[in-house]
């Protein structure tokens, strides 16, 4: 066994409700804390000296901390696209000159330009790129990250992406999601409905057989897929045994309502959600995953995080790290800035990237520091946990432990 500590403060994120607003006084903050690790999981949490005394003589390995550190559960980024090739700096320059996301896509930029570059790379090259970006996430305190396909948009290229994600060698736990329904590829000779049928018939059975992903996503928007086409597709996807997530309400409403109808795990984006959509999400089991990186990247309003929480929703926060709309990739910085504009408490911001983001990935073994959970820990050099959010992402992790191993 190994005892890590003493931490100046340990914020466990334990015993918090899954839905609705959170006050900071609900946070469990343990002073002079220790974490006892058995193999890769947490055996006990409490006062460091008490744990040291209680388990002394049981082959206890001490990971002693001789500086003031504040510890949190490892961060969880529940929505990323970190497997891609090329750059969209040209798109970004056009947006700064006043063109919209949809206008740029119609001119040959946008998702399709990334698809063309991604198709050119081998599986090994995509795997290497994914590893590099995943390791950057790890430096920023992210120990688990969802990663979508969606820049292949053919059976062969989507499989290449998913295999690259699954084979990526990194300490970060990568959760692959099949987003073959990102847009209808421009080189597909048929309707959007016919393309979705091809994915369902030719791609998803292989994904299932090879265990490449148990999650399927679809982008519902004017430039992607309609609600009616998505509904038919997702019904068949559910019959195949996949969990469903939806890109919804980014530029227009409709996706969130379908997410509720289909009992999706989460609906992600929500920048365009109106009060009716907010109330409907809050009264469902669908998790609202907001993506401040996309708002920063596109220069559009943030998703209504405060209204979602006040209505009673479960709010997760993710980076949406991608080459087009969200090139920043720094989850903690984005979450901190979102908190300023949406008036989120520190507890709400932290829950959005730990316990509630774990729920958005259906992971019940992380996001909370408690007995039995994986020992994923991130620590910052400060003596007050509030300083970490206060610095708005400028204060970077001093130490990260993945499954109890210091990295």
Condensed summary:
This protein has helices at residues 48-54, 89-96, 101-106, 110-120, 123-139, 155-167, 192-209, 227-239, 255-261, 275-282, 292-298, 305-311, 331-342, 346-352, 355-360, 386-390, and strands at 2-11, 29-38, 41-47, 61-64, 70-73, 75-77, 142-148, 173-181, 215-219, 243-248, 266-269, 287-290, 315-317, 377-380, 399-402, 405-406. With 407 residues, the protein is of the alpha/beta class. It has two domains: 2-74 and 368-406, Urease, subunit C, domain 1, CATH 2.30.40; 76-360, Metal-dependent hydrolases (TIM Barrel, Alpha-Beta Barrel).
Describe the protein's architecture and organization:
- By secondary structure, the protein is of the alpha/beta class.
- It has two domains: 2-74 and 368-406, Urease, subunit C, domain 1 (Roll); 76-360, TIM Barrel, CATH 3.20.20.
- 37% of the residues lie in helices and 21% in strands.
- It is built from 16 helices and 16 strands.
- It has helices spanning 48-54, 89-96, 101-106, 110-120, 123-139, 155-167, 192-209, 227-239, 255-261, 275-282, 292-298, 305-311, 331-342, 346-352, 355-360, 386-390, and strands spanning 2-11, 29-38, 41-47, 61-64, 70-73, 75-77, 142-148, 173-181, 215-219, 243-248, 266-269, 287-290, 315-317, 377-380, 399-402, 405-406.
- Strands 1, 2, 3, 4, 5, 14, 15 and 16 form an eight-stranded mixed β-sheet that branches. An eight-stranded parallel β-sheet has the order 6-7-8-9-10-11-12-13.
- β8, α7 (192-209) and β9 form a beta-alpha-beta unit.
- The longest helix has 18 residues, at 192-209.
- The radius of gyration is 21 Å and the shape is globular.
